[in-house]
Design goal:
Layout (H helix, E strand, L loop, with lengths): L26 E7 L7 E6 L5 E6 L5 E8 L2 E7 L6 E5 L10 E2 L12 E7 L2 E8 L4 E7 L6 E6 L4 E9 L4 E8 L4 E7 L6 E6 L6 E5 L3 E5 L3 E4 L6 E4 L14 E8 L8
Antiparallel strand pairs: 1-2, 1-20, 2-3, 4-5, 5-6, 6-7, 8-9, 9-10, 10-11, 12-13, 13-14, 14-15, 16-17, 17-18, 18-19
Amino acid sequence: MKKRLYLFFAIAHIFLFLGSGARGADTIFTVQNRSSTPNFQLFLNLGTDGSIAMSGTLFTLHGIYGMAFLNDTLYAVELENGTGDDYLATIPHEDRFGEGSRVAGGANPVGFSNVEGLAVADGIIYATSLDFVGHKTSLLTIDPVTGIGTLVGTGTFDVLIVGLAYDPVSGVLYGAGINTATFNPQLYTINRTTGATSPVGLLGVHIEGLAWDSVLGLIGAFEKLYQSNPQTGAATQVGTEDFTDGRPGTFNGLYGLAAFVASTPDPP
């Protein structure tokens, strides 16, 4: 498995809306790669039925992998195509829909390679850093002010976590990933203190983005939007929308995934 550097192109400096309407109380945001439409990644607002409520060109940022909300701010991990460094960025989701910018003016890369999953738990931004040669995943925290990452710990050998989500009801950090020994997509739980990963079960579908939504629960995405059973891992398709841009089996699909939740219950 390789870092998909070639997926992301220079972002076209135009701004368009294909839909209308303001953000609701609980909404899902994601980034769709469309390599069949050169120079475009679309920033999408999805309904809980998987339909596209609003769409606009991702503006000023390069490739996006992980996304997560800290309060009302949508953070994202941005891959800089020119250097291969990853940066923490923010993406407006209301009046300047999709017009992103790097944290701290773009001065500080995260400091770890292949940063993909992103989740917020108890006010802390967590991320995963993938070692494709060593077949392992490191769990990081990222400072939302400086954008700099700090190592928490390294997980199980042969596990690469590409999506992260925190369930505030159960207090569990989940990861969607690949077991590189079997190449099966699996759901994992991740220890926030040590970075250790524990398998939950097979997802049954390839997932890149993972998030927790107050309506759907644990959700994942790539070619489609899915719900994942947190006890078994099994993924069930939500809606009928195809995000491959008409090219299933390609790298077209959804990557970063984040749900804005108006209010969440406290963990038990």
